[in-house]
């Protein structure tokens, strides 16, 4: 058998793929196991998850800070409470710490899978785990782009979470996701108006609806191919009295089209020649 010092490698690099696979297998098997567990994570539903500091604290700075030097109560009790996060999202975060990935139940329909992935994005951004955040981000973006029927039932929830993350210090993905969400919504006005999603948006995402209304006003003004849907949206959003058709009185105006007059605004301004029209 050759001696180890015959190789031009330091001892610390000795090993094999088989040995590494075996080690990773043991690490995965310790996930949520009480064997050798020296800390717990208490979820918002009261469930306690067995964890191991050497793994969880190494993977997530939040846990390391909470347990460091017994400075906080968690460091003395070994129990970290997560009262403000959805249980399935924290479970996915912890599973990622052990396995480098997480499980999404095959029993969930596409809408629930989307909400699950958005929740994981949320906790990953909150607890500064960029590698974890990148995993659901691609899936969420694809779903928002290609599977709008799955988005509609949970649009208010998806918007609230993404809007909460809309800050460069929180999530690099959120601005792109919100832009994609708005574009998708503008292309799917009819199902939004006709389903109970409207009530959810009205009650929980009013600012998103206002963004939608601005997009609809633009379509109305430009007489885009969605003009009928724009009229339908604005009529429901603002009331039938809000839509008042006005033509610019200026001869030769480059744009002699309809304008959208929001209820309560007594003056309309032509976007082309800036002529103001007072309304009675």
Automatic annotation (TrEMBL):
Transmembrane segments: none annotated. Coiled coil: none annotated. InterPro entries: BTB/POZ_dom, SKP1/BTB/POZ_sf. Residues 37-106 form the BTB domain. This is BTB domain-containing protein. The lineage of its organism: Eukaryota, Fungi, Dikarya, Ascomycota, Pezizomycotina.
């Amino acid at each position: 058998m050759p001696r180890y010092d015959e190789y031009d490698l330091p001892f610390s690099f000795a090993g094999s793929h088989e040995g590494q696979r075996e080690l990773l297998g043991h690490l995965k098997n310790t996930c949520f196991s009480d064997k050798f567990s020296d800390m717990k994570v208490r979820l918002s539903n009261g469930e306690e998850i067995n964890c191991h500091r050497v793994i969880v604290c190494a993977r997530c700075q939040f846990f390391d800070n909470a347990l460091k030097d017994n400075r906080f109560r968690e460091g003395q009790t070994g129990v970290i409470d997560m009262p403000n996060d959805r249980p399935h999202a924290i479970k996915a975060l912890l599973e990622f710490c052990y396995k480098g990935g997480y499980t999404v139940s095959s029993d969930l329909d596409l809408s629930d899978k989307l909400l699950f992935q958005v929740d994981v994005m949320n906790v990953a951004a909150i607890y500064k785990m960029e590698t974890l955040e990148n995993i659901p981000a691609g899936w969420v973006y694809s779903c928002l782009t290609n599977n709008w029927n799955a988005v509609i039932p949970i649009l208010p929830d998806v918007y609230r979470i993404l809007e909460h993350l809309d800050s460069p210090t929180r999530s690099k993905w959120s601005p792109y996701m919100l832009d994609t969400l708005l574009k998708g919504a503008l292309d799917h006005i009819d199902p939004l108006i006709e389903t109970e999603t409207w009530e959810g948006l009205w009650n929980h995402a009013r600012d998103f609806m206002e963004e939608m209304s601005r997009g609809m006003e633009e379509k109305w003004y430009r007489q885009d191919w969605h003009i009928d849907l724009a009229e339908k949206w604005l009529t429901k959003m603002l009331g039938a009295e809000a839509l008042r058709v006005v033509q610019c009185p200026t001869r030769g105006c480059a744009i002699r089209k309809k304008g959208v007059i929001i209820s309560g605004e007594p003056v309309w301004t032509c976007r082309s020649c800036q002529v103001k029209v007072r309304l009675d």
